[in-house]
Amino acid sequence: MDLRRLALACAVHPAVGERVAGLVAVRDVLRPEAKEAVSRLKKQNIRLVMLTGDNERVAKTIASDAGIDEVHAGLLPEDKLRLVRDWQAHGGTVGKMESGSAGLVFGGGAIP
C-alpha cells in the first residue's frame, strides 16, 4: 500500500448506532486513459492547466499523475471564471474538461 497516496484520501467512518464500525479511505483516481489524453494534447502544443476547488496537495498529485504541469487549486467558481476571462482577454482560446466528462470542448465561451 502506498502510504503517500493514502494520506491524500478522505476518511469515512461508518457507524452502527453510536459505535464506529470501520474506516473507509476514499480518494480521486485518474481514469486509465487520462494520462494518454494529456500526452496527446501536449504533443499538439496545447497548454493544459488544472483549475480546481480541491486542496493544493490533492490537486498537485492528481495533476502530476496526469502529466499536467500547471495547477491552480483551492479556487471558488468565481476565481476560475476570473482566470478564464483573463486568458481570453489576452487572446487565449479556452477549453474545458471536467471530471467524468465524455469530451473536451474548445471555444471562447467556456466557463468553469
Protein model, in words:
The chain has helices spanning 3-6, 34-43, 56-66, 77-89; strands at 10-12, 15-16, 19-20, 24-26, 49-51, 70-72, 94-96, 105-107. The protein is α+β, with helices and mostly antiparallel strands. The chain has a domain at 31-107: 3-Layer(aba) Sandwich (Rossmann fold), CATH 3.40.50.1000. The chain is 34% helix and 20% strand. Helix 3 (56-66) links the parallel strand 5 and strand 6.
Name of the CATH first level of the domain at 31-107: Alpha Beta
What's the name of the CATH homologous superfamily of the domain at 31-107? Answer: HAD superfamily/HAD-like
Largest sheet properties: 2 strands, antiparallel
| Uncertain residue segments | 101-112
Stated plainly, the CATH topology of the domain at 31-107 is called: Rossmann fold
Secondary-structure element string: HEEEEHEHEHEE
**Broad shape:** elongated
Rg calculated over all Cα atoms:
17 Å
CATH architecture of the domain at 31-107: 3-Layer(aba) Sandwich
Backbone structural class: alpha+beta
Name the helicity range. 25-40%
Could you report the average pLDDT, rounded to the nearest whole number?
A: 80
Count the E strands: 8
